[in-house]
Structure formats: C-alpha cells, structure tokens
Amino acid sequence: MKIKNLTYNKVWSYDEALESQENIKLKKKYDLFINGKFVLPEKSKYFPTINPATEEKITNIAQADKADINKAVESAGIAYEKYWSKISNRDRGKYIFRIARMLQERAKEFALIETIDNGKPIKESMSFDIPTAINWFFYYAGWTDKLKYAFPGKKIKPIGTIGQIIPWNFPLMMAAWKIAPALSCGNTVVLKPAETTSLTALKLAELIQDCDLPPGVVNIVTGNGYTGAEIVKHKDIKKIAFTGSTKIGKEIQRTTAGTGKKITLELGGKGANIIFEDAAINQAVEGVINSIYFNQGHVCSAGSRLFVQENIYDIVMKKIKDRFKTLKIGNPLDKNTDIGAINSKKQLEKIQNYIKIGKNEGGKIYQTFGNLPEKGYWCKPTIFTEVSQSHTIVREEIFGPVLTVQTFRTIDEVIEKANNTFYGLSAGVWTEKASKIFKVSSKLKAGVIWANSFNKFNAASPFGGYKESGLGREGGKHGLIQYLK
Ligand code: ADP
Predict the structure, then answer these.
(1) In a 10 Å sphere around its CB, with 0-12 CB exposed, 13-18 middle and 19+ buried, how is residue 451 labelled?
(2) Most Cβ neighbours (<10 Å): which of 22, 326, 342, 479?
C-alpha cells in the first residue's frame, strides 16, 4: 500500500492555544467511527456531553448499541485480515508516526477540547495530557519494525481485534496508551471512551481519517457501561484492555473467565507518599501538591496517603498549608489555574460523601479558603489529619483532591503502613539517601515507585499495578507483550 507524503511544519505555543479558542469547531452531534467513517448509531440515540466548569452542554454523542458494536468488531476483523496484517511492519510504523505528527500539529486544539470536556486546567492539558499522548504514538511507532529484536528467539504474532475501554481522567492520553501499542504490534481496535469525555477520542478519529489509515483499523464507539459490557462480551474480541474502577475490572475478569480472552486491567490505587526526615523538604512539599492535586486528584496513581516522619511533621504541614494558599481554583481555561473542575456531578457527590465520612469518623479537616464559582462542579483541595489505618478515607480510593496524612517513626513501620492496602499501584519516597530509596522501594508492593518525584510518566517505562490495582503493564517493552501472542 502506498503512503502519501504529508508535511507538518506548525509549532504551537501555550498562549497561541488560549487565543485560538474561538477557532475550535465542534459539530452539533458526533456519530460512531466505524470502518473509517462516521456512521449513525443504529438506534439513533444520543446523549449530551457537559462542560463540568459551566454545566453547559457542549454537544451530543452517539450511544452505541449491541448492533453498532457488532459492526465495529466486524470492521476491525476485516481490517486486520485485509490490510493491517498484510502491510509491512515499517509501513505500519509510518501510519503511527503520522498520527503522532498530526496530533503534534493540532495539539492546541486537542488541549482546549480536553479542558472544556474534562474540566482539567489548560496548563495541564497543554503540558501533560496532549504531549504525553503524542509521545506514546511516537514511541510505539518506533517499535513496529523492531519487534523481533524486542523479543529475540520468540515467534511473535499480533492477537487480532482488541477491545479497549478507557476512563475520563486523561481521555486522549488513555486513548493513546491503548491504541499506539496495539497498532504497533499489528492488531486492530475497537475503543470506547468514557461517557463524560468522548470528545478528544472522536477528534482523534477525525485525525485518523485525515491520516488515511486503512478503514476499520481503529474504530471508536461511544456510550456508557452497557456499551463497554457489549465489547467485553463480543466473541470476536480477542483481548480486552481496560482502565477504570476496580469494581468494573473485577466484573470484566468474571465475564472473560474461561473464554480464552486475554485481559489487561489498570484499576484503582491508594498510593503512599513517604517523606523521611532527611528529605529536601521544599521539593517534597511540591511533590505532595503534585501527587494529589494534579488533575484534581483524578489520578489512579495519586499519592493520596501521605506519611511524614514524626520529627518533621510540624514543618512539613506548615509548608503544605502555606503552599495551599497559593493554589488557584476555578476557570480551567485560565492559564494560571491550578485546580480545575471535578469531571462530573456524580464524581463530585462521591468525593463530598467521602469528606463527610472523614469528618464523621473523627478526622481533622483542612481546606483552602476562598469562594468557588457558582456554576460547575468544584471541590476545594482538602487535607485530613488525625486519621489512622482504620479510617474509611485512608482505605478507600476517593479519586479527588483529598489527602490523608499520617506519621511514622521507623522504616519498618512506614513500610507496613504503606503496604496495608488492597491496592498496589504507586508510591513515592522522599529522602536524600539512595540506600534508603532502594531499601524502601524494594519492600513497597506497588507497580510504580517514584523517588524524589511523583506522577512522572514516560512511554519507555512500564506502568501498572499489583493486587487490586490490576493486571499487566502499559508502556515500554512490557506494553508490547500485552498485544502479542
Ligand atoms: P468510574 O466509576 O470512574 O466512571 P468505571 O470503571 O465505571 O469508572 O468506568 C471506566 C470505563 O468503563 C468507562 O468507559 C465506562 O463507560 C466503562 N464501563 C462501565 N461499566 C462497564 C462494564 N460493565 N463493562 C465494561 N465497561 C464498563
């Protein structure tokens, strides 16, 4: 198959993005992306997608039914047989590079749409979500013609049609984390974004059309949990890659048990962030802010449990509270905003309920001052002290800007406390001593451990959890294995 040459020469800047808001063109309704075309949903049903910062409707999104999923899976199957398994590894790479470059060119548009649809600060969409998504496509484009070197001596093959279901916290980035490695290994996909944040995945579908990707290689179907469940059940889906709640992850495990379907699950977390007495305190405090208030705390790897060595507790808390006062909450499109809107009313109510439970169980609450905007879904950054392992808010994932703080005296004590959770996704260690970093991190049961940093991501490094935080890894060579036989 011949691939046309396209040229990409635009650069984007942060200010440019804010200025170009009025240039964003959204359709009145978005259909399903199946077999390279936007098609009407069989039952002609649509649901609104809302800007969580204003509660205004942005546009309408198609609700895919079982018949639509059948069509999407069929088209992915045909695309696999007819095109994607026939072209050379190198040509597959060219297509994925093309997606990366087109996305780079249109980054500001994607960043704005992500912020409007999700509620996250534009600062974060511009500096994190979109660049990370681009990076993932570049990284996995590079692997297509090197797969046999990645796994020497092994006879590897793509799996076939993959069902991919993603959450609402990093919509485009999650789509990239799923689509890029799957295509790189030679699979075709049916991807479903979360119901509150379908827009950037649909814009990605438009971009994929512009990239001339063979029809059916990527299909994007929108809808709710029912739609997701139909993808999971479909007999021609050979593998499910899911990111979302532990509850649905367990349901997917039950549904796929005994079917021979492969699964990877990236689920919840309750990360421990540990500050030792010898840590660089100002850096550690910045790390705490980033670990729990980044993306309104809607991060499965968030460091939602802070452990501070007892003798530095007062100074650390004072510095965190001082830093708190500088956090700017409000309009996500303002480039100075640090904390944007909570993604949905449902999530806000869930967080508020946990805050209530925290107070009722005797935790001492500290919140930032100032008024919140009248419209939209907002939650002030919150800290709970005077809590112990038995408190509900220390045990359960809140998925919001709520931090619990506990103290410890010895390394063994903090390791035991940090591991005392059903989850095992992430952790952070703050200390000047490398020996302590190695000692502690070798004993923490978490898939990702950051040392003197937090919430840093790189396409080359694997990400994923132990225990109830999931199965399998995304990123790096580990991310390729999940999409190969
Ligand atoms: P949250 O509670 O944060 O919304 P979910 O795990 O419910 O997290 O949602 C993550 C993704 O899983 C979304 O795309 C959602 O539509 C989808 N989903 C929800 N229920 C199911 C299900 N039963 N089977 C498959 N996917 C589902």
Answers:
(1) middle
(2) 479
Task: Give the type of residue at 168.
Answer: W
**218-220/188-192 β-pairing:** parallel
- Taking the CA of residue 347 as reference, the ligand 1 atom at the shortest distance is 3
Angle between helices 434-443 and 411-419 (to 10 degrees): 40
> Which SS3 state, helix, strand or coil, does residue 244 take?
coil
Of all protein residues, the one whose alpha carbon is nearest to atom 11 of ligand 1 is: 167
Mean pLDDT for each consecutive 10-residue tract of the chain (485 residues)?
41 55 81 98 97 96 98 98 95 98 94 96 96 98 95 94 98 98 98 98 97 97 98 98 97 96 97 98 97 97 98 98 93 94 98 98 92 95 97 98 98 98 97 97 97 96 95 96 96
Amino acid identity, residue 50? I
pTM over 0.90: yes
Quickly count: other Cβ atoms within 10 Å of residue 228's Cβ.
Answer: 26
Tell me the C-alpha distance between 261 and 254, whole Å.
11
Domains of the chain are 14-267+469-481 (3.40.605.10), 272-458 (3.40.309.10)
Pick the residue whose CA is nearest to atom 9 on ligand 1: 244
